[in-house]
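Long-time lurker. I teach an intro course on protein structure, and each term I like to show students one example going from raw sequence to a predicted 3D structure in token notation. This year I'd like something fresh instead of my usual example. Would anyone be willing to generate the tokens for the chain below so I can use it in lecture? Attribution to the forum is fine with me.
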Amino acid sequence: MTANLLLLTAILTIHAGSDDLAISHFKTSGYQGWVKTGSAFNSGPALDEKLKKLGIENSPDGAVATTKFEGDGPRGTLTSPEFKISRKYISFLISGGNQQHNAGLNLLIHGRIVKSATGWRNDRLVPVSWDVSRLSGKRAKVQIVDDVSGDWGHINVDHIVQTDKPERLPTVTGPLYKESLRPQFHFTARQWTLDKLNPGMREEGWINDLNGLIYYEGEYHMFAQRWNKCWLHAVSRDLVHWTELEPAFWEESQDSGVQSGTCVIDYDNTSGLSPNKATPPMVAFWSRQDNRSQCLHYSLDHGRTWTFYPKNPIMDFPERDPKVFWYAPGKHWVMVMYGSGQYHIFTSPNLLDWKDEQKPIHDSYECPDFFEMPIDGNVNNKKWVLIQGNGNYSIGEFDGREFKEEGERHPCDIGPNFYATQSWANTDTGDGKRIQAAWMRGSEFPEMPFNQEISFPCELTLRTTPAGLRIFRQPIAAIASLHDGSDSWSDKHLNANENLPLQPSGRLFHIKAEVNIPEGSKLVFNIRGVPVVLTSKTVESGANPASVHGHVETVEILVDVASIETFVNGGEISATRYVLPRENVLSVHAEGGPATIKSLTVYQLKSIWP
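-- Reply from a regular --
Happy to contribute to a lecture. Here you go:
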């Protein structure tokens, strides 16, 4: 009898545990028990006939928390009483604006946003759910936020419940970094609070322009844009394995913008931003959306937390993308900033007060990168290199106030997806190498919870060629840390139309080959249905063929889930290319005549993600 009673009790407990627990009771009690701020929720919930007048559709309860009564102007928040998370999901219906964190529904634990959802610029309520199983037992609140005025500056929420059987399961269900199209050794952004496929430019999961790349005390910092919503932040010890941190800092208010810029380490505390010279500030420069307010944040803990400089803006000057560095010979700071088709040069003793040197660099384009490099590795013979946002570079002399270009401009990379490139600063405190990466603009991942990717880091060297000084780009040597087995061939002579299958397991590869291609012949690498074409003097991968100064002798190819990066003759020419695989094949064949593969190794690669 006792055993039967225990079994019945267990069944009843399980059944009771599956019942939904309501978080909102807008129909019966309005917003009673909820805490309001601002004016957006003053009119109470929309009931029955008012829903029709407001155009809000698909409410099962006939009662919706909304900020639409007075149009898109009022702002405010509505926060629920605290509750204990005791079901696997929190389910709700939502519609209205789609400004993440500024117009939507947030789940708060200890005041921190851990889940977030927005509308879709539509007033038809749709079901959404959050998987909160890992938060079981924690105390939480939900908060409806409307901090947006203007277009779609309202939000509608209904029927918030804890449940084990949501009307609609979360969209993103796969493990982080294991999604089917997630690049495995190229950096992509993650979602922190959203649960959304195909994120847009200002939403979690999106990444674009790199900015503020810096090395400091053994750690490489990668900052990047979420389209001026915030600065994304990731750190690495080897430039291969990355840990993405939560965004470093955000725009001050909706659409005020926090655009691209630079990080520096103020070792001498010239700015006075640190109370202790032994703890130099990491200072981040950026431009507001108005394209004239130049501002900064600073950090005293290796970029983990950031302080908004209270006297921002430090300068009012059009336009944006400040590149800042210390010029040791002159013992002053230099800022190169894009504006009106030019790069303007400013100097400062303290990072806070800036002087326009009135020596602009004409015919310039966005996101400058500017640094000094040794020629052929000779540290006693250097030139300055200026790289524009479109990847074109020029070489010349710089005296701390004026840059004098010498010769024509040349592309760093000939691929179709190479943009807003930047290099890591302050590496002279480490190994001294100049390492570059770029936003692979246009790299879209259909039905994935991330969007866009970053090219693999490459070491830059400045070398003498028969045509003059040129930048060479090669994948950093640390790529070898990902090698996980290999297949090799040597002295393979291919007749015209002869094919050499390369069929290693996996889908991540590092290919290195030494070749001999006679004039009139082509050597074509088939990378999952995508050709990389070599002739005796050219390489072609996603763009028009580009010529080397002598003959094509070596080729190196990085193959990730959705990219092919090609490097010829030690990086004399590189081609960065986003591409989704078209078939499952890896091979090389000759066309138009014979070709010889002196040596060829295909390394399988491990993922950088845990």
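Some talking points for your students: The longest helix spans residues 2-17. The CA atoms of residues 225 and 231 lie 5 Å apart.
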